[in-house]
Amino acid sequence: MLAAIEPMVIARSVDKYFGSLKALDRVSLDVAAGEVVCIIGPSGSGKSTFLRCINQLEVLDAGAIHVAGELVGYRRVGDALHELSDAEIARQRLASGMVFQRFNLFTHMTALQNIMEGPVTVQRRPKAEVREEAMALLERVGLADKRGAYPLEMSGGQQQRVAIARALAMKPRLMLFDEPTSALDPELVGEVLSVMRDLAASGMTMIVVTHELGFAREVANRVVFMDHGGVVEVGPPKEILSKPQHPRTRDFIAAVLS
Amino acid sequence: MSAILDPTLAPGVREAVGESGLRIVRRRNIGRWIAAGLLLLFLGWLIKAFADGDIEWRVVGEFFTARAIMTGLVNTIIMTACAMALGITLGVVFAIMYMSPNPVLRTTALFYIWFFRGTPLILQLLIWFNLALVFPTMGIPGLFEFRTVDLITPFVATLLGLGMNQGAYTAEVVRSGILSVDVGQTEAAKSIGMTRLTTLRRIVLPQAMRVIIPPVGNEFISMVKLTSIASVIQYSEILRNAQTIYYANARVIELLIVAAAWYLAVVTLLQIGQYFLEKHFSKGRGERSQKRAAKAAAGSSAAVPAAKEA
Asked: Which among A160, B84, B192, B277 is least surrounded, fewest beta carbons within 10 Å?
């Protein structure tokens, strides 16, 4: 299993400021291909910001991120780093798929159109072929009968599953989940987690920002605890969730479980 | 006859009313009858006033489809369409410039909107029409050159005047439409690898249309009527042609009635068009969607859809 050793994401001392607020403070993290990493931590700890830096929804202020072997946002020419153009950044983003807290399905398109939009418009692949794949993806997330439904006609759980299918349609090498179940009613959380569990079982590399400690314990290879913009602790779920070393991790887990 | 029972009544009361066999006397709404009567009286008086007034309805009929009126009508329609096309194009371009991170583009857009919204339309028309006073010739020296008087015909001056002015207003409408689209939509578009321009074209603008169309429809209707002020620079639209006729035959009111009827006809057609456009661009948010959304919320939200009947 040589492929499992090759890192999919390499982040090195990443800093990010929002005005004078330091949102990320020298964050370093490697994620191997095929690995599932869950990032936990209190709100405002920078975990979503870090995720958004990986696919360049935020621009970092210092440090570097490599995704699938490419330096994110820059091209190296001699000993200078050149900022990438809009089109080149768009191309780099194809390496990763993103699932948002608020689903963000395109409201003017049906479930099927949402999934087909990227492959057809961005990758310019033939419509018939894409439609077939999109239907297979809808089947996979259990929503084949919702292909003609518009986002606002679906429940939150259904929208999120379509959103996962939309990201997968681009055939990304890495999936980023930004609190995918936080905006859901409690009884809808399970259906989304089960799709994610299947995805992890299929070998997809996943970085999941989540408050679902049960999911992290069961699915993650490693859990990262972040606080105040920095990585506090990293390790296997059993260690981090059951025997946290750092007092801040301990406090957080106690607070979530209570 | 079974009385229709108000379901909000308490069961006991309902039964009492239903089984008592008593007659239900409806509310009388006396105020409504009085108001309706007064309005009918006023309407009758108005009709009589116009019937007795000095209007030759025969003349109205005679000139309704007169050649000059028809030409004016066609010119009005053509000018409305061209000026709005120019206005919407400029509106979209300047709205995007206004929202650009590039300060030069933003300032240019700001200046454009400031100038064309800040001066009277009739003044702008006069400036365009008299452009030859400033620039006797136009073109690229050595390549081609025109005399400005030949280039700026009443049609061109009107088109530039109305279109540029419209663009300034439409830019603000388009901008508010773009702002109404959730940033999450843009982020989702980026995350599937769309460039900024593709995102705008495929995701943001189609959704912004829902907000943009009602005010633009409104402006389209205004434009039909605004073309009439182009008569000051000799553009032969419908009102100007009607005036030309009544200068000759002195049937002022009759010809104004002809013009008014045609304006109303064009505006009515536009309103119908707007209805269908709005329906098209409310995809995913229309009545149908709301009904289905309510159903989705009411029915169970489990993976297996329970709400498939109906």
From this structure: B277
The whole-model pTM stands at 0.80
This model of the complex carries an ipTM of 0.92
| Residue in B with minimal Cα distance to A101 | B184
Minimum distance, in Å, between the CA of residue B267 and any CA atom of chain A = 29
Nearest CA distance, A150 vs chain B (angstrom): 5
Chain-chain contact of A98 with B188 (C-beta, under 8 angstroms): yes
Q: Which of B307, B291, B184 is nearest to A158 (CA)?
A: B307
Do B193 and A142 make contact, defined as CB atoms within 8 angstroms? no
User: Is B270 domain-assigned?
Assistant: no
pLDDT > 70: what percent of chain A?
Answer: 98
Q: Closest Cα of chain A to B288: distance in Å?
A: 9
Give the separation between CA A55 and CA A9, rounded to whole angstroms: 11
B304 pLDDT more than 80:
no
- Asked if the C-beta of A183 comes within 8 angstroms of chain B's C-beta atoms, the answer is no
Give backbone dihedrals phi and psi of B176, rounded to 5 degrees, phi first: -65, -35
Number of structural domains chain B divides into: 1
Q: Report chain A's mean pLDDT, rounded to a whole number.
A: 94
**Domain count along chain A:** 1
Is the minimum CB–CB distance between B180 and chain A shorter than 8 Å? no
User: How much is the average pLDDT of B189-197?
Assistant: 95
Residue B66, burial from CB neighbour count under 10 angstroms (0-12, 13-18, 19+):
middle
Q: What is the pLDDT of residue A222?
A: 97
With respect to residue A147, please indicate whether it lies within any of the assigned structural domains.
yes
Per-residue pLDDT for B308 more than 50? Answer: no
- Judge whether B141 lies within some domain: yes
Note the helical H segments in B1-118.
11-20, 30-52, 57-64, 67-98, 103-118
Q: Which amino acid is at B125?
A: L
- Nearest-by-CA chain B residue for A185: B301
Angle formed by the axes of helices B67-98 and B252-281, nearest 10°: 40
Domain range for residue A138? 103-171
Q: What's the average model confidence in pLDDT over B12-41? A: 81
Quote the pLDDT of residue A19. Answer: 92
Q: CA-nearest residue of chain B to A99?
A: B188
Tell me whether A242 touches chain B (CB under 8 Å).
Answer: no
Among A49, A85, A125, A150, pick the best mutation site for testing chain B contact (most B Cβ within 10 A).
A150
- Cβ of B191 within 8 Å of Cβ of A167? The answer is yes
Contact B72, B240 (CB under 8 A): yes
